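From the thread on structure requests for the teaching lab: each student submitted one protein with a one-line request. Submission from student K.M.:

"Model HNH endonuclease from Pseudomonas gingeri, tokens only."
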Amino acid sequence: MAAILEPIVYSEPSARFVKTYEAKKLSDKSGADWDDKANPLLVGLKREIKNHYLKAQDYTCAYCQQKIIVNHNGAWDTEHIAPRDSYPGFMFVPENLCVSCKDCNGAKSNKPVLANKKRRSFPRHSKDYTICHPHFDIYSKHIRVVGEAVLYLPKTKKGQALIEMCGLLRFVYSFADYEISDLNFGTKVVALGTELQNAQSTFEQIAIAQILRTMLDEGLRGAALTRLKQME
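Reply posted by the TA:
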């Protein structure tokens, strides 16, 4: 996935549809317009949008950066960064679109992302958003991802807001759920130990140390429970 996302350039039929839609009064627009399955032009436009961003993002979620290559595009959601229910006028603005995994999209839902919630024209600058924006921000400047643990460490307030909004702590909880008997447990502990040594700040050291402690506590607890069951 590129550092800054490439916006879609609509095909001629799709561009005509979007132009017609955007010419409507704001009061005549609704987030529900997106779900009109009876309109073949809209169905084709939505397919065009999803296919573009899947390729532009290299099948990588804009929010958690997890790469998911599947044959069925239904595993992905087309994401309106400023929610379409709140801002139907931004529904087809290319810079308001990307693809995300279903977990991130579900967690983000209709949460507000604009610094000015009453904004009427589409905001085109990083400062206009409270989260790391796929089109206007470089992800790595706001969030560092520790690969082995899939641990998200915020570098900025926008990074922290994205981590909280999209529920990225779910990876920490999943990663911590290992028993000592798990064959990968030792490898993952060593990998996290290396990350701890390479931590770029005191904050990162504390965060990684906490997940190591969680892993060990949960692993020991799981191993003890397994042993008790074997003794029954």
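TA comment: The CA atoms of residues 14 and 213 lie 52 Å apart. The two ends are 51 Å apart (CA to CA).
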